[in-house]
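so i finally got all the pieces together for this one. its two components total, 872 residues if u count the protein bits. some of the lines might not be protein, just check the labels. i wanna see the whole assembly predicted at once instead of chain by chain like last time, that was a mess tbh
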Amino acid sequence: MVSFTLNGRPVAIEAEPDTPLLWIIREHLKLTGTKYGCGAGLCGACTVHVNGEAVRACQTGVFRAEGAEVVTIEGLSPDASHPLQKAWIAEQAPQCGYCQSGQIMKAAELLASNPTPSRDEIVAHMDGNICRCGTYNRIIAAIQRASREG
Amino acid sequence: MTQLTSNGPEISRRNLLAGAGGLSFCLALGAPGLALMPASSAAAGRRMSAWVTIAPDETVTILSAGAEMGQGSMTSLPLIIAEEMDADWAKVRVEWAPADAETYGYTSRGRKSMAIVGSRAVRSYFGDLRVAGAQVRKVLLENAARKWGVAAAGLRTEPGAVLDPGSGRRLSYGEIAGFGKVPDVLPSVDESELKPRSAFRLIGRSVPRVDIPAKVDGSAQFAIDVQLPGMVYATTRHSPVHNGAPESWNQSEIKAMPGIVGTVALDNGVAVVADSFERVLAARDALKVMWKKGAKAEGFDSEPQLLDTYYKVHGDPGAQAETLDSKGDVEAAFAGAAKTYRADYRSDLGYHAQMEPLNAVARFNAAGDHVEVWDGSQSPDRSRAGVAKALGMTLGQVTLHQCYMGGGFGRRSLGDYAAEAALIARDVGRPVKLIWTREEDVAHGMFRPQSFQCMEAARDGDGNVVGWRHCVVGDGKGLLTSGIKIPYYGIPNQHIERRGVSHGMRLKHWRAVGHVFNVFAIESFADELAADAGMDPVEFRFRHMAPTPKARRVFEAAVRMSDWNAKRREGRAVGISLTERSGSLGAGVAEISLDRNTGRIRVHKVWIAVDGGLIVQPDAARANVESGVAYGLSSVLRERITVRGGAVEQSNFHDYPVLRMSDHPEELVVEFVDGEGPPTGIGEIGNPMVAGAVANAFHALTGRRLRYMPFTPERVLEVLKT
């Protein structure tokens, strides 16, 4: 039994300890906003926060969540009101949208520690997250907007 | 704000007017506009959803027949109807149209289709949907006229309401829905009755895409997100050698693993099924399959074929050749030329790498005579038909639930994986979610073919290009030939041909497919001719290749946007390329630099001018072109699939690297040249021009030619050594 907090709510789950957190979140707990892209820590589509740190859920054994606070895209804000979510809409950033939960969670980690990142800092921080639709410049613009408009 | 619901209410055909439900336009798309459903489908008792429904609470529900993979069709298509019916866009809700091409498809080459491929959505539906919207508006006007006892001709509409200018009376669409009637046969609409462009309120003005809010909070439903009670999980191991078949596998060992439901034989592989996805993955790792010998692809090694065999096929006078375009007297043009040229180009196989690995969910009813499939599909009608065929069932026994697609790029226009999910669900007697791993998605991919291209040109004494030969060699038939013709250059003598080979590999459409390598060859070769003539490449085309006025316009726009003649920063250079795709023309300029130690090309700025006719949604169209550039750049700089013994050598993003943020141009500017014509394709106009623009910039920078795509650092270093 592994127990942790998911988007502010306590959860307890019966699972092998090394089961990737990704499958626990998506298929056991049915929060499907976190995506499977590569299963190898290469694309960032499964990015979630564990105690505030952006991690790849496909590479994170659920045992590592024991006692931790896990936040997914569904828990980033109660009503899509996080500055990044608003900025993502304002910049019309998503295309297919599949990578965007991971992009937003990765960006949220950046703004939490660096509220006014430079363009280079944004690129360095976000470079592990693939967007196959190539929305990179709109993602940068959205992060800058969220930084500006808070 | 509009919203999406994934399952629209199904209403029988005769239910044209439901007292409580408002006005429902339950009709099929004819040509032009909406018409009664074909009698054949009515006789078949098919149920259908109302294309347009107006509720007394003013809500207007419009179906979108356009699959959504990020290109914005589910906004643009309903918006075209909303425009002509003068709906209040704030009151519009969008729902998916059922997977039924007879009712919801556009007509292409005499056949109905819902395939959102080849940049077709807006350009294929535009005319019919405008007429459909105007028909709905006419019905609303007639109902108001009857109510007021006046002639409909004297009435007009504003968004969401009919007005009587004479008396100042007003009826909202919702009010009309409360009492109105939809006639059995809709009034016809003449093209002259459609809005002039100057009257558009929605077309040409960007509205927020309806799918975006659900894509920032995790609520957008992709097929991979579907959860059903009692559902089990499946994944597959397909034959590494393409089109190979399983002979035997360690079934009892797999079945002894925890949570395993079973294994299922497929045509080209084996599926494992378990009660959780992590258990399925463990079983896949443990699965050992003996494959039958003799698949045709066994003998296929991609590199020697591309480097050597294709070259020989081109030189073989006995090889079969298909003439794709021919005009004038090419032999005479070359015989009488002042100077002739030849250059060969090559390109590797390309993988779609859509972010959402292929997957589908399938569930049978208790009787086993009906199946529901959840699939994010570019061709829901075709996927549905494919499921029916695989199961030996009728179309009526298959319901396909359309989902958002985590990327398509041509791969999701064939539901081979959806058919697999249905077969597995039938076999195990449980609802099944099938997910291919990324490794499977790569290994069992369907690729953009590799190509060898021989370009030849003849210039006369005045320097004009009077002869043009283009031969493409490769597998994949029509996949090889898109974009190979050059109607935008007035070269009088041309011979364009394809020489086919066959390897038994799985090949498929890929964003603009043949354009990617054909336009690379065409526009690089034009640049080579210009360089040999010592002329500016744009000036050379204008003076010696007779571009059409439309081509000149996009060239001129790209020259202006990029300040083409400006001196660049030290270590940088620009290149230019034209491309046509799906009726659109575009010209692009790339500004690059090069790390001569590592061979890494960096593209700093890209300017793209597109003549796409009437642009229905400018911001979404711009996003499409931006995406095309990124997709193109990724394939030009990095992406290559190689095959040995019929098996793919790459497996995930570490050895099939795609463009990342740090590779993306800092500046990417897209401009639409004001086109007079109807909308043309936008989704794929951005990528075919990237290769030529980058290769030509590389030549401007180094004096060397890149003739083998992608331009990996290793290839760049090799070229620099020559």
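The mean pLDDT of chain B is 93.
The radius of gyration of chain B is 28 Å.
anyway lmk what u think
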